[in-house]
Amino acid sequence: MDGPKILLLDIETQPDLIWAWGVYEENAIEVKEHWQLLSFSAKWLNGEHITKCLCDYKGYRAGGDDKKLAGELWHLLDRADFVVAHNGKQFDIKKINARFIVHGLQPPSPYQVIDTKTETKKVAGFSSNKLDWLCSQLHLGRKVEHEGFPLWKGCMFGDRKAWKRMKAYNRHDVILLEKLYLLLRPWIKPANHGMFKDKTTCPRCGSGDLQSSGYYRNKTTKYRRIKCNSCGAWSRATLNEQETKPIVAL
Length: 250
Fold this sequence. Notes:
Elements: E1 6-14, E2 17-19, E3 30-33, E4 36-44, E5 49-53, H1 67-79, E6 82-85, H2 88-102, E7 112-115, H3 116-123, H4 131-137, H5 149-156, H6 160-184, E8 210-217, E9 222-228, E10 234-236
Parallel strand pairs: 1-6, 6-7
Antiparallel strand pairs: 1-4, 2-3, 4-5, 8-9, 9-10
Helix pairs in contact: 4-6, 5-6
């Protein structure tokens, strides 16, 4: 890949299957089946897209575990420099790490997480920061409609049609995620493409189509301000043009 390896990611999980005395705010008496990964969808930015479910592996049976699924996801994360996920820091990454620990996997190579939900909240005040709401308002598309929990239940009990719908639902979420990330990129602090290339490029999108436009100043420094003509993001040069004027006010 030319530049950083950026992986867009979304997972779906099954709930715990428990015994309980009641149906409202009850503590579980016993867990019959612990939650696990049902599927993941991952896409390299502007590149290959892979979506896998538990039912894709040889020997699959309803109630089986997610060891093979987790292992394949581990190899993807091990290759990534950055992982983009919506609500990824609070949900996807922590859930994934839990399954890696359960299956005795060591940590993958370090990567940085770009959480589009968290980053959106830093720079904008939308009525909702859910993926479907943002993509709908920004005219990027909508999530795949489904029947709700019966879809998850169908997958847990081995319904092949339910698995097919789950895979389509999971995959489409990552398509929306990529569109949202590319739209937000000039506004947020995404992967720094400039750190992965020898020539001067836009740190947000990697384009070399740049123009100098004014200066960024504070009390003691002055830097050339640069705009990317491809994505519209602003950046600055690293050379302080005030270094030849070392006298500052006390």
